[in-house]
Amino acid sequence: ILNVEQSPQSLHVQEGDSTNFTCSFPSSNFYALHWYRWETAKSPEALFVMTLNGDEKKKGRISATLNTKEGYSYLYIKGSQPEDSATYLCAFRGSGNTPLVFGKGTRLSVIA
Amino acid sequence: GAGVSQSPSNKVTEKGKDVELRCDPISGHTALYWYRQRLGQGLEFLIYFQGNSAPDKSGLPSDRFSAERTGESVSTLTIQRTQQEDSAVYLCASSLYPRQFSYEQYFGPGTRLTVT
């Protein structure tokens, strides 16, 4: 059974703070790592698809890094805003025609 | 353009009843996925459709669950004789290419199912 772990489970930060959280996944048979943002009452929204060890992707104030050898990815948010409040999901794709395996998510609350 | 839509948005049903959930994928998307998220759990894969190929049903938790998709259009997920443990948010997603190419999946807003 594949295990995708996200930490912390939840966190509260003040507006303007920078924050980061972790996704851990199997280091063998890696194919891709996806990050999604899921706001309450909305659809999960794709942030990044990462495939190469050492990859770093950025979208506005949000960026992500990938280490496939040790099996982790970090998501960073610089200068958090209240609108960043959401659950951030990562999902691991192994090689072959296999389904995404999701972590339980990190719930971020940004306090104004 | 229009995104993935799902209906109903909320469904409350009595234990033992059958329910049918609907998903309209993005037009032209060949791949369609069903997931569910039970309270305190991660998103759990249920079933995957790719074009006219046989679906991957490996994630369906029991034979009370079934799903259909005609071509590259609408899909329905049916749960027979619902149980309380079926209570969850059921999400549908679609993508332009088959999943082995790891393209983004576009999610619908989900159906929140509550079994009383």
- Calculate Rg of chain A over CA atoms: 14 Å
Largest sheet geometry of chain B = 6 strands, mixed
The helix-and-strand class of chain B reads mainly beta
Distance between the termini of chain A: 40 Å
- Overall body shape of chain B: globular
Mean pLDDT of chain B: 93
Instruction: Tell me the β content of chain A.
Output: over 45%
How large is the count of helical segments of chain B? 0
Helix content of chain A: under 10%
**Overall mean pLDDT score of chain A?**
94
Shape of chain A: globular
Note the quaternary state here: heterodimer
Largest interface by residue count?
Answer: A-B, 26 and 28 residues
The sequence of SSEs of chain A as H and E is EEEEEEEEEEE
Q: What structural category characterises the helix and strand content of chain A?
A: mainly beta
Tally of contiguous helical segments of chain A: 0
The portion of residues forming beta strands of chain B comes to 35-45%
Q: What is the succession of H and E elements of chain B?
A: EEEEEEEEEE
Q: Count of DSSP E strands of chain B?
A: 10
